């Protein structure tokens, strides 16, 4: 009986080491939907949360829409009230998997990876695949990348009055510095 208990604790300990989780609450998301000759349409959110399971490559990201900061306060107000309707749809999320992920092969040299999963924004979910880079230094894994999204894919209406001032495709950049939990 004593051997079984020791083996059980040993097995649980090995499982915990092999399936470590990394997380952040200070991830950075930036988006830009600017059109040449018009005012910049860009914002940044420095409080994005993310978690990565180093055993499986599963990754989840969550950001509050009201966390995006614009250079112009009125633009921020319109973004929250008229476009993403932050009171009704307060967050955006991504749940996916880093393809062919092997934590033991990570180093300080960034490695190109693909991340596939579901992006949920404004109450709509769309499957996306993102090109990203991943690196590891000490107890920190950093995931960076970018992708394009269309407002229409998420039922975000751009009024005709400003449609020429906002790009059809929104460029999104992310930087997720994840530390061991």
From TrEMBL:
Keyword field: Signal
Gene3D superfamilies reported in the protein's UniProt record: Lipid/polyisoprenoid-binding, YceI-like (2.40.128.110)
InterPro entries on file: Lipid/polyisoprenoid-bd_YceI, TTHA0802/YceI-like_sf
Keyword Calcium: no
Superkingdom of source: Bacteria
Protein name, as recorded: YceI family protein
Database matches in Pfam families: YceI
Lipid/polyisoprenoid-binding YceI-like domain segment(s): 21-179
């Amino acid at each position: 009986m004593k051997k079984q208990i020791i083996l059980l604790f040993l097995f649980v300990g090995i499982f915990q080491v092999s399936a470590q989780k990394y997380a952040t609450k200070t991830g950075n998301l930036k988006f830009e939907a600017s059109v040449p000759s018009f005012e910049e349409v860009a914002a940044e959110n420095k409080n994005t949360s993310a978690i990565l399971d180093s055993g499986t490559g599963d990754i989840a990201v969550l950001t509050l829409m009201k966390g995006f900061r614009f250079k112009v306060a009125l633009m921020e107000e319109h973004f929250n009230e008229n476009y993403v309707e932050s009171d009704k749809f307060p967050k955006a999320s991504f749940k996916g998997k880093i393809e062919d992920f092997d934590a033991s092969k990570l180093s300080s040299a960034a490695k190109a990876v693909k991340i596939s999963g579901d992006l949920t924004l404004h109450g709509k979910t769309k499957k996306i695949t993102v090109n990203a880079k991943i690196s590891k230094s000490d107890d920190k894994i950093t995931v960076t990348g970018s992708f394009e999204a269309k407002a229409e894919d998420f039922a975000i209406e751009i009024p005709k009055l400003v449609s020429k001032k906002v790009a059809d495709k929104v460029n999104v950049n992310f930087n997720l510095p994840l530390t061991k939990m």
